[in-house]
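#random but structural
TW: two for the price of one
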Amino acid sequence: MSYVEDPGPGHGSLPPRAAFASDAASLSLSGTWRFRLSPTAGFEREDFDDAAWDELPVPSMWQLHGYGKPAYTNVRYPFPVDPPHVPSDNPTGDHRRRFDLPASWPAGPAVLRFDGIDSCARIWLNGFELGVTKGSRLPSEFEVGPLLRPRDNVLAVRVHQWSAGSYLEDQDMWWLSGIFRDVTLLARPEGGIGDYWLRADYDHTTGLGTVRVETVPGAVLGIPELGVSGHPAGVPLELPVEPWSAESPRLYDGELSTVAERVPVRIGFRTVTIEDGQLKVNGRRLLLRGVNRHEHHPRTGRAVPRDVALADVLLMKRHNVNAVRTSHYPPDPAFLELCDEYGLWVIDECDLETHGFGPLDWRGNPSAEPMWADAYLDRMRRTVERDKNRPSVILWSLGNESHTGPNLERTAEWTRHRDPTRPVHYEGDHECSYVDVHSRMYATHAEVESIGLRSDLNERRRDLPFLLCEYGHAMGNGPGGLLEYRELFERYPNCQGGFVWEWLDHGLAAGDHFAYGGDFGEPIHDGNFVIDGLVFPDRTPSPGLLEFAKIIEPVRIEAGADGIRVSNHYDVVNTAHLTYTWVLEDEGIAVAEGVLDVPTVQSGQSVSVPFPRLPATGGESWLTVSASLTSPSSWAPAGHVVGWGQLPVSSARVAERPARRGPVFRTAGRLLLGIGEFDPGSGRLTSLGGHPVHGPRLDVWRATTDNDRAESASEWREAGLHRLQHRVITVDADGDDLVVRTRVAPPALASGLLTDYTWTALGDRLQLRVEITPDGLEGTLPRLGVTMAVPGALGSAEWFGAGPGEAYPDSRQAARIGRFSRSVDGLQTPYVFPQENGNRADARWLRLTDAEGTGIHVDGDPLFDFTARRWTPAELEAARHTSDLHASDLVHLTLDVAQHGLGSASCGPGVLPRYRLVAQKTEFTLRFGVAN
């Protein structure tokens, strides 16, 4: 059998060991390599002439450099399912690198290390074959000392896109190929430290840490900060320490050494346990406010530089994320070092997923087939051995969506025996027969509550800690319903949070937009299902991340019975590092501010403090209290806000009702009422204070979201809500009011909405009362309100209401009440796959103005939602990329009484009942005026 189709893990590599650096000589072989996308006979020979070959950077993925094309599938394999065989037409990249050794390079053993090659590689050095490696996201090392020479070494690597290993790597991501992580030559001195396992436990009852090291004989440990020097590494050492946690990532710098080699170590003392059905670290229950993180960059794919990994960690910390699941493979080792340093709990997941067997009823699934047993165990061994020294890693995960079977059971048994200090996770073990935590994906809120109530008939599963390894599918506009999950996690101690799917949209840069599945002509693909992150491909936070950050904020500030209640929702630390400031806004304008004196609050506790002394206000006023960092941290500057709350102080003043200004005048084919002009045939407003307008008239459609399309969109389309037609029944202009009675209904159906518009002139305002009565129409509506078009010059928006970002009924915790301004263009959220976006909620008033400050003004009675954009909902619906949207010479304005919620039905539960917009008799009022 060809090595490519051999289901085994490869051959020739050294036993796996921990990832670490030392003072031994090393040489990076990353850089410019010679490359050719086709197997070339004899390319491994030292004298082979590669002068005509192309150049390719390493690390890289060759499809992103013009060799072949990317392809995306979620579940389905892009090749025939005939394990372990793969297509004969197998893209193969030959790589060559010549290098010289530094003059100071020592004689003796040396190791060639590859940190990641997708998917299978055969490797030669100076014409000698080293071996074959599979397991794309795992390291492989080869002994090369006797083969090295001072000058003109030739490293040749043949990489195959498809191999037997591809059946184990169906991980809901782009299929990309190449040497995508670092390549390094490492000197291995005789008497050096080939491997080590540093265990640093913490006893929370005594405050003592215990450190022990499994390594070579004669090694000694030094920890200068703890006064430790020359301690025999294998002898346990107990001493008082500060523990490590994600909130206080205390690391002690030390050194492990022999006479031949010194290894810097960073020691974090912590102990992971499962007690009373709860996952605990250092005796504290954890609430995992986590995300799933694939490694992705829009230009380099899975070749992610360290500075980008650092940007991810900092962005997570600044948005209150405290945990990461490394879906669905171990990340670059640098990422876990950053998690140690900055503080994130980690589920470290093995490089394994066989999801493509699911549509085949799991027939032939490798998890149950003996020929794959060695590959399964090899992948887990390489994961555990590489990352065993990372204090941030608190759970090992066997992989993802690979059903179940003896190979997984065996892997779990090995892992638990090798490392009894960390529990084992795997969601696919639904009976929890060989795992230590109960894990689910996309369980509904009701299911989570049932688990919290411990109503499960499976006794073992019932008594385990529960977490959602995936939930809150962040595809497009959403997810909605995160608040209700948090409430369940806090209500039931055994429900310990979870990991939103997922951190990052996997868009690939494609000129003026980001590409997704199908954009490269793939014969099978899963479209934009790869665009499902809390941050956009360029790592700009989406509204979903801002919402998540608000919901999981570690300090909660609310109105209490006797003042302002401040609650500490950190798992470990108190609030001594925070400063509390307040600002009072009257009608959205700051009128007073100060510092709030709040005593230190311990984890899990709350305090109440009195309101500050506030000046009198004349209108609707709100007090906003923020908790921010007093001093700079490693991940954010002083003043960074970690939590905030907003409390109402006074209600809006009751405005005097202006005098009616009637009657309606008929003149020269027009109807005139106050500042408005109307079409006499349709009763539609055509001018407002001299500004040409079109509308408003009833509209219930929105450009469907990814979540809509998975739940309600088909129902809405069947009801014809996307193509409503308007029939004017009467236009009554004989009194002081203009009353327009209509029926709004879809073609081919008998159902509709009876809609009456009553226009009244009140002072310098024009009032519109809209009365809507369903006429045989049942079910839910996307939204309910009116749509109108105004001149494109009115490109600036200012409003008093919820903001500054978009908000929807089940995703609005991040919005606060205030006065905000944006350009119309700035109101848009550039979802990679265009869809409904940009809704601003609970507006009291809105102004749309031109560069001179003139335009229109809208008041709610009392509130309304609005969007303003330069394209219609139909144009937004038709677009497939942001570059498909082209500005018109109009601004299309929606003014709504209600919106349907978002949910997360793209992969998970739909909109909760309380957030569904059900068709029913409704009335709302708006007032229009001129802004000067």
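TW: number two ↓
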Amino acid sequence: MSPTSETAQGGRRLVIVESPAKAKTIKGYLGPGYVVEASVGHIRDLPNGAAEVPEKYTGEVRRLGVDVEHDFQPVYVVNADKKAQVRKLKEQLAQSDELFLATDEDREGEAIAWHLLEVLKPKVPVHRMVFHEITKDAIRAAVANPRELNQRMVDAQETRRILDRLYGYEVSPVLWKKVMPKLSAGRVQSVATRLVVERERERIAFRSAEYWDLTGTFATGRTGDASDPSSLTARLASVDGRRVAQGRDFGSDGQLKSASAGQVLHLDEANARALAAALENAAFAVRSVESKPYRRSPYAPFRTTTLQQEASRKLGFGAKATMQVAQKLYENGFITYMRTDSTTLSDTAVAAARAQVTQLYGADYLPDRPRTYAGKVKNAQEAHEAIRPSGDRFRTPAETGLSGDQFRLYELIWKRTVASQMKDAVGNSVTVRIAGTASDGRDAEFTASGKTITFHGFMKAYVEGADDPNAELDDRERRLPQVGEGDALRADEITVDGHATKPPARYTEASLVKELEEREIGRPSTYASIIGTILDRGYVFKKGTALVPSFLSFAVVNLLEKHFGRLVDYDFTAKMEDDLDCIARGEAQAVPWLKRFYFGEGAAAGGAAAAEGSAADAGNGDGDHLGGLKALVTDLGAIDAREISSFPVGEGIVLRVGRYGPYVERGEKGEEGHQRADVPEDLAPDELTPEHAEELLAKPSGDFALGKDPVSGHEIVAKAGRYGPYVTEVLPEGTPKTGKNAVKPRTASLFKTMSPDTVTLEDALRLMSLPRVVGTDGEGVEITAQNGRYGPYLKKGTDSRSLETEEQLFTITLEQALAIYAQPKQRGRAAAKPPLKELGTDPVSERPVVVKDGRFGPYVTDGETNATLRTGDSVETITPERGYELLAEKRAKGPAKKTAKKAVKKTAAKKTVAKKTVAKKTAAKKTAAKKTTATAKKTAASKTSADE
């Protein structure tokens, strides 16, 4: 049935998609016979807390939202912010003759469609409408060829959701009790965090090795040109036939690897300089020239993870920002569905790409036959096609009318897709070996490598980036002089070069995505949200583009490894993914599998009781890779909270992760010589060396007794507080601290020019005397000088005026204050402060990016978009690339939503009305509690600790 207004005359069709943007685009293709509405994500989910669970459920069901004793039956509820939308959908359905469920074609989209069926309970014909691009032809074809709901996909998604809920809601409370409140654990997020922590452990254990070699510049004696240079640079490769040691020959302990120890020559500085001196007057000649053909094939079209990696390398986007921009491109009909494991292109797409190759580059760049790409992802299932420009004719970036981040990402996808259907790049690679005899008789051999590309092929359209910023890209040529064996060369310069091995690089978002995919952990479509979660939870922070684990994550991973080893085991997590895919294919049943995971091996046959005792070592044992989560979280007696959060630094110093942050400690509290100092939360763990820890302990900390207040007699002390140094008075013992008669000690923050170890008693008493009464104006209104959150200021009634310096709080006179108030109050912004740092030109807005000092701390801006620096970023260390990434993430989020102030005022206007409103809300909650309805995806994602 063709979806035209004529065919729709026989009835009214309701089409439901996930997002309003998608609904708007599709509506334009269907005509007046169709009503297109959005569910706005998930309409149902597991409850976020016991308050949302219907009253008929008790005990563990209220806590988990899953009835583990009755086949893991989930309790679904409609979240409060989706009830109005559900009501609207029901009203639209009541006026319709057919229902088309047009949610995304992956497992999550299938689950949303199923939840819609369960909640709306349609009495009209229902069709499942699927498509992977939003074009006129694709939408009309989807309406004309609907299918049935795929219950296997629904079951697989539901199993994942239940599994993640059990994992999160059972393991997270263990972290609350043993590490810190409000932490979370997740099936994939905890494993991803462990990867980042393990890389940091490798960096901490790493010992650098020093090695030296020589670099020679050799001249042919001819006049050179672009195709035949007159000289080449070569590096020392061997001495008397023994290969000179390079970085790859050393282990992480700084020693030569056993395989290299007897085979290579390890040059130190003295030996390298002696060899260079011995070669000073040596004669050099070409020993050999080896030429090989070079061929490079195009890269496969994008799938979700390769798009995230390349957008990170080329555009500076984080995984989350990439998916947000891609979502907008998909919903507006520019690209195909962006959550896919497939690298396949449809015949239509191949034809479109080949047509553009001929049109833009000529027939010489078009291979005789279309290229096909085999999928490399195990159990690929998310969609049927790679990410590509939509339609049967690809729009060039210039034809789209896009701008900013959307233009740049579309251009990346378009180039990659077109390049995938172009010819190979071909050329030659050459290795030249140069030999010379030193004055002491040693034979020294230098090597130089070159590459020339004779036909660029697909590289005319696209070249892939690299995670290593020092890596050479595929299209880079290195031309060497045209020399032959035996040709004499002149050594113009021989230099001595020292090198040191480097610790393994920290993960970036791109390399972590690649690592997770290679280990087959989790689903590629969830990686962006997983990385976002571990950043938001404070387990990881960024320094530039590098992902740095916090000390908190060390404590969390330490606990999980020691007591829930299997749950964060990489192979175990990958095996779980295989099992879930088996359920999706109908090769396994969900309930028996969940029983084994939760109650232990044998639970599928014998129930919960039969599993007792069989999962005692489920965290670290052998045998069945599922088993015994419930038993693991029940017995917590063996977990020593202090031991879990303690890490030796050296020299008797221990790093501990406390409830209020990390700190270093020497000795035990209460013992003589005990020392303790807070550790900056943005300090990378591999930077906390024994020397650094000693510096922290040596810094003045604790209380500094300044003397007694001559008026009150109370002791005055200076302290280093969590929010900065301050002075306070010590009240006598027995002074009530709570209740109606409670007495609060006087307290004042130090000025920026003061520190706890130098502030005097006189300074402290002056600070605690604030606010200071400056005087009164002609109408008798008092003027005071006060120190506030945003600096020193004057206050007269409700009128505040900023002061220029903190010292003015004590020196400003009444006349000066009146003069300030006589000036018109500045509306809007004050004079702009000079930037703290210039970063360069933003590749999206093409405007200069600077770092400024704002009301809430430093931020980056291009004059259009502002983004606050995150934990781990600093004005001194932030790179241009990191600045561009922060701006890209902020743009992807879109403008902040404004709150409806009128409604607040109306409620607050009358106390009686406010009480009635509250009463109605409470009643509404009770009514909702008696219905089996469901939570919206967005709310669940932000509140539920059971996410992957």
